[in-house]
């Protein structure tokens, strides 16, 4: 199994890069109204998306104060939370997204190295 | 629990925290019509539903009725990345939404500490939890927070610092192979609370806690007397029997008939229409019924009528506290006037006499406050009668009957005596105690020249006595006959003497007559002679006149 994993790993990165080049990203940002963190998070994600996902992303901003029932379905505890719906697997990033590097890693736009 | 404030419940694994929390919610709905929110951080909704169903609560139904909302919070650590600052507002929103959707008054968070495993930054978490508890207070809901027992702290993450209004600790310990559950109210701001450990048990109805028995000895007692079921025994107890609401102890060595006395009492009480609980610790109910039938007491009809409840289990089945709580429950449900415990000594396992005594003291206290007449049986070991029962409850007892085995002449008989009976005059005599096929009989013992005799020795002695009686009677008759014959003899003698006397009398009369006749004749002869001699009668007269 381990041999297979190493074979697969480089393939995955390659796939990710290829995917990153081609696939559509669907991101949902959950925020809590107009709190400072929420505002920062919105600004930050917009910046990241424009920089790295130009033209192939879809960003939804959900204000949980307006739609609280959505929190349960997606298991939102911390705010702000960014969910990467596509490509799968589901990824979750909490925080106001000020650490761009971490965001990119979390979205699989950059390898951890 | 304090209304509108958070309470912390902590304890080790499997102590019953989730259960307590769930029962709090469900009873809030069913008994007080207060809807509730259950936020689960560790179990899934399905697991919860199943666990709760084991207690008889139907969670699905309550959720459908919009009385309870279950929100399962699931954090997958590997999914999460952290970037920048965040807070737990999501949790607040979810909770707020759930509370508002049904107008909940009660909230359970079980167990919040699971968040620490899921989220990366403990500092933020702590700050947010503090905020959460204040938020709950502001919302005006009564909340229960559960937490795992920590090393050296009440909870693993030290939640007790934040929830400072009320803290309850649950404990589940095993001692001498039996487990017991305790709960303790560690803190309760703004109220006086009992700080002792209280035992509780979890059964098919949920959690029952032993009520605080006030050991203040303020019972009101009645002066009514109830029959023991054995007429002779009633007579020995001042003529009327036990006091209602008193405690009776029947002690004796093995096989002396203690359970039989208990059965008589149960029978008598049921006849009066009273309810009886018979707690048995060594025999199964059917065994008890069978054994009592053999001495002519049929308890089956009372069981059928629902007046008699036979409750049997072995003491080793659970800890003492659990037993006590169980008995409280059964007594509160059945509401009897008489309670019988048979036998007490089976609780003494491995030197725990003090705990057993404490348990019985509390049970007695409970029964006295309810004015329930209690009858205990106790097996005493050893041949000699002890001055005190080995668990030392004789001083708590009002009436103490002692059954003794009397060995003599190669056989063993039973004797009953009243050791003490508070508040009434009682006989101090030992009575022979017989188990016949129509119940218990008490007979006077034979007190003879050779001491107290019972059983066949008594019968022999009685036979001997009778023989003696007969002999004596015969002796008397014989003497009487003798006397009579003597009397007759005497009479005969008298008659004879009289006859003799008569004869003598006749004879002497005759002789006297003869002599008189002779005398008369002589006198006549002299007179005639005088006449014939023509004496001077006048001249002779003075001579005659002078002598």
The arrangement of helices and strands of chain A along the chain is HEHEHEEH
- Sequence stretches where pLDDT stays below 50 over 5 or more residues of chain A: 1-9
Low-confidence stretches of chain B: none
Q: Helical amount among residues of chain B, as a percent range?
A: 40-55%
How confident overall, as mean pLDDT of chain B?
81
Neighbour order of strands in the largest sheet of chain B? 3-2-5-6-1-7-8-9-10
The greatest inter-chain interface is formed by:
A-B, 35 and 25 residues
Tally of individual helices of chain A: 4
Helix count of chain B equals: 14
Based on secondary structure, the structural category of chain B is alpha/beta
Account of the protein in words:
The complex is a heterodimer of chains A (113) and B (547). Chain A is α+β, with helices and mostly antiparallel strands and 113 residues long. Helix content of chain A is 44%, strand content 21%. Chain A has 4 helices and 4 strands; from the N terminus they run H-E-H-E-H-E-E-H. Chain A has a 4-stranded mixed β-sheet, with helices on one face. In chain A, strand 3 and strand 4 (91-94) form a beta hairpin. The longest helix of chain A has 21 residues, at 2-22. In chain A, 28% of the residues are buried. Residues 1-9 of chain A have low confidence and may be disordered. With 547 residues, chain B is of the alpha/beta class. Chain B is 41% helix and 24% strand. In chain B, the strands form 4 sheets. In chain B, strands 3-2-5-6-1-7-8-9-10 form a 9-stranded mixed β-sheet, sandwiched between helices. The longest helix of chain B is centred in the C-terminal third of the chain and has 79 residues, at 455-533. The A-B interface holds A 30, 32, 35, 37, 40-41, 44, 64-65, 68-69, 71-72, 75-81, 90-100, 102-103, 105-106 and B 71, 73-75, 79-91, 93-94, 96-98, 115, 118-119. Strand 4 (91-94) of chain A pairs parallel with strand 4 of chain B, so a sheet runs across the interface.
